[in-house]
């Protein structure tokens, strides 16, 4: 996109930006809002001072810090320099000391229907025992611990036990292969692996330990011990001396453990992101700044009233959302949360809503892909349950199309719960763009406004801020507390990936647009933006148009190379349950619908009706694979898909 063509980019995006529905917070909601309007002005006046106040209010420091921000070694920031803090103490012990020991920290719901709850006092005890156990296995401050666990309380316990002793956790999502696990173990040189015999998936036991055994079968690794949680009771093979049952080590450990203070910049964790190409990047986060922004955003964006709310974030601990908004922020803020092990359709498609009803969940944080799946299953399923406890809804992970947003609001939120669409990344550590629910009049499909104290902008090719009503690249102009401190073992790659596109600004890799009010709309990764006959089209916008057709459940759009137009729009759609595929007639109907919604330029050249879409395990559509299909190539590596057979299903369907 050149400066000259930048304004044209806007034209094709009008569809999304003509969205003019607004939902102001109700007077009752606004009256009890945690976030106060003064935050924006305070942050604008002195950003580091604003974050320093948050750091001191939200965390208990063993030693107060001297400097809020040291940016002298940019682009590596230091926040709250000289301060000392312990993440686990802040998440646990201090609540017990403050008389909140009996408050439930976690209501765990297993897939087979077993459940257990941990109070803050109980969770503190478990973490102390795990900390002692890991130390007895030789884990020291700064050592790396690989975590390959399902969504069970032991995952949170393990992470907090590492944080307590200053060991750096590196969670590898339980759905990743043995090879992926090994490469992450090697890259971080992990000393300990914490895993489980397995978990449950759709009512069946699903193994984990065999992948660890396979990962460690070849020589040359750094792992000394494997601690194994017994979860599904399936038989596992055992390496004597190396393998230890959780119940034997953690179970036998002392429940006395004194947390030691860590420097604010002490590394807290590494989390590998799936990176579009090549080797995964080990995103490094440190302690004080990360915890401050995670806790601040969690309290203000989710309007958390810890005494009364029941919070449920459906993310797996294998993703950054499961770190910031399951493990750290809710516990730092003293919240009561729900944790669910399994899939949304086990044993039936109402499982989530049954859980909401059972625990009276008041704050629900999930992803657009889940919302669209529930839309596909039909509103009569959630309508069978009492969802009246819900008072706030959150969305994360992808742009949420206005149809899904409206459905979420009406069917799940009872037409009253504000929706916060939260934009952020593994790299940003915590939410960066989001409405504040008691203050912002929300717009279906837009993440809208930067969090107070965060300097987001949309710039053109030359790095110039675009005027309202125009699109470009999303950047962050100033360092923020929870920003990544680098890529593990590869400082150059950190600079190249994020700081070379625009010299002094962080390049997020997302396309975005400011509407006439200056609100930000996320338009997908910049590699998802197509150029058709010189017009820039957003995959998100066309997908959104397709999904607004009553026959369509889900859609994914790619730009396929085209001799005449540069790129051509190719759409993959899943029809709603009960809708018949009438071949060419259906295709024509959908093409015309997009033509009507956006304009003839956006009409897909091809519409392919498919049974499933290829998604990563975090629910992101793998457009790269669809592009291969659209361009007539054999889709390459599909191993990172949640369901690796999806591509075969699509190929088989297209051959019909
Ligand atoms: C938290 C998380 C980051 C990428 C990001 C963007 C997309 C996340 C979004 C969103 C539009 C939102 N993304 N939230 N796009 N609206 N509310 O998902 O982290 O897995 O690192 O993904 O996800 O493209 O760049 P991560």
Describe the structure.
This protein has 656 residues and is of the alpha/beta class. It has 2 domains: 485 residues, 3-Layer(aba) Sandwich (Rossmann fold), CATH 3.40.50; 126 residues, ANL, C-terminal domain (GMP Synthetase, Chain A, domain 3, 2-Layer Sandwich), CATH 3.30.300.30. It contains 21 helices and 30 strands. Strands 12-11-8-6-7-14-15-23 form an 8-stranded mixed β-sheet, with helices on both faces. It has a 7-stranded mixed β-sheet with strand order 5-4-17-16-18-19-20, with helices on both faces. A 4-stranded antiparallel β-sheet has the order 21-22-24-25. Helix 5 crosses helix 12, helix 7 crosses helix 11 and helix 15 crosses helix 16. It starts with 5 loop residues before the first helix and ends with a helix. The N terminus is likely disordered. Ligand 6R9 binds next to helix 13, strand 24 and strand 25. The site of ligand 6R9 has 22 residues, from helix 13, strand 24 and strand 25. Pfam families: ACAS_N (PF16177), AMP-binding (PF00501), AMP-binding_C (PF13193). One of its GO terms (molecular function) is acetate-CoA ligase activity. Keywords: Acetylation, ATP-binding, Ligase, Magnesium, Metal-binding, Nucleotide-binding. Belongs to the ATP-dependent AMP-binding enzyme family.
Please give a quick description of this structure:
The protein has 656 residues and is of the alpha/beta class.
CATH class of the largest domain: Alpha Beta
CATH superfamily of the largest domain: ANL, N-terminal domain
| Helix/strand/pairing category | alpha/beta
CATH architecture of the largest domain: 3-Layer(aba) Sandwich
């Amino acid at each position: 996109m050149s400066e000259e063509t930048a304004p044209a980019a806007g034209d094709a995006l009008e569809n999304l930006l003509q969205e003019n529905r607004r939902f102001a917070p109700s007077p009752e909601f606004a009256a009890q809002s945690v976030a106060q309007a003064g935050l924006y002005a305070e942050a604008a006046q002195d950003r580091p001072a604003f974050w320093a106040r948050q750091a001191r209010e939200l965390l208990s420091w063993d030693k107060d810090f001297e400097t809020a921000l040291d940016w002298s070694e940019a682009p590596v920031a230091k926040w709250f320099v000289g301060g000392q803090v312990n993440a686990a103490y802040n998440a646990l012990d201090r609540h017990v000391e403050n008389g909140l020991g009996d408050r439930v920290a976690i209501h765990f719901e297993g897939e087979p229907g077993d459940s257990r709850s941990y109070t803050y006092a109980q969770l503190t005890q478990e973490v102390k025992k795990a900390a002692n156990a890991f130390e007895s296995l030789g884990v020291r401050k700064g050592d790396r611990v690989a975590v390959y666990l399902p969504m069970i309380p032991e995952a949170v316990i393990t992470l907090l036990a590492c944080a307590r002793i200053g060991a750096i956790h590196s969670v590898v999502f339980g759905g990743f292969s043995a090879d992926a696990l090994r490469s992450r173990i090697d890259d971080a040189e992990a000393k300990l692996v914490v895993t489980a015999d397995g978990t449950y998936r759709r009512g069946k036991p699903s193994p984990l330990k065999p992948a660890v055994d396979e990962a460690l079968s070849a020589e040359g690794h750094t792992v000394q011990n494997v601690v194994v949680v017994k979860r599904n009771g399936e038989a596992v093979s055992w390496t004597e001396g190396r393998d230890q049952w959780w119940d034997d080590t953690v179970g036998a450990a002392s429940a006395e453990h004194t947390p030691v203070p860590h420097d604010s910049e002490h590394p807290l964790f590494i989390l590998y992101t799936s990176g579009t190409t090549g080797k995964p990047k080990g995103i490094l986060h440190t302690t004080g700044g990360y915890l401050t922004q995670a806790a601040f955003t969690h309290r203000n964006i989710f309007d958390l009233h810890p005494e009364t709310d029941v919070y449920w974030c459906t993310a797996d601990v294998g993703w950054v959302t499961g770190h910031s908004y399951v493990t750290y922020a809710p516990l730092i803020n003293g919240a009561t949360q729900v944790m669910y092990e399994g899939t949304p359709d086990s044993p039936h498609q109402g499982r989530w809503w049954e859980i909401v009803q059972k625990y009276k969940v008041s704050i629900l944080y999930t992803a657009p892909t889940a919302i669209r799946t529930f839309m596909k299953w039909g509103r009569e399923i959630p309508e069978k349950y009492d969802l009246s406890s819900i008072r706030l809804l959150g969305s994360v992970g992808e742009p949420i199309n206005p149809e899904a947003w409206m459905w979420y609001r009406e069917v799940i939120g009872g037409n009253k719960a504000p929706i916060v669409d939260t934009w952020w990344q593994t790299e940003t550590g915590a939410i960066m763009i989001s409405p504040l629910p008691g203050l912002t009049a929300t717009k279906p499909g837009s993440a809208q406004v930067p969090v107070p104290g965060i300097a987001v902008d949309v710039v053109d090719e030359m790095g110039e801020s675009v005027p309202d009503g125009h699109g470009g690249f999303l950047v962050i102009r100033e360092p923020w507390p929870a920003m990544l401190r680098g890529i593990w073992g590869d400082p150059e790659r950190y600079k190249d990936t994020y700081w070379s596109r625009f010299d002094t600004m962080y390049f997020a890799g997302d396309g975005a647009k400011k509407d006439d009010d200056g609100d930000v709309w996320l338009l997908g990764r910049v590699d998802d933006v197509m150029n058709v006959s010189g017009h820039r089209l957003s995959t998100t916008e066309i997908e959104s148009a397709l999904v607004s057709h009553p026959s369509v459940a889900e859609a994914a759009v790619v730009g396929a190379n085209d001799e005449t137009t540069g790129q051509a729009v190719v759409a993959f759609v899943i029809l709603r349950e009960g809708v018949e595929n009438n071949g060419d007639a259906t295709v024509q109907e959908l093409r015309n619908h997009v033509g009507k919604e956006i304009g003839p330029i956006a009409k897909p050249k091809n519409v392919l009706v498919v049974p499933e879409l290829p998604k990563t395990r975090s629910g992101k559509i793998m457009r790269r694979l669809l592009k291969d299909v659209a361009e007539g190539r054999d889709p390459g590596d599909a191993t990172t898909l949640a369901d690796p057979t999806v591509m075969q299903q699509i190929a088989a369907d297209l051959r019909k």
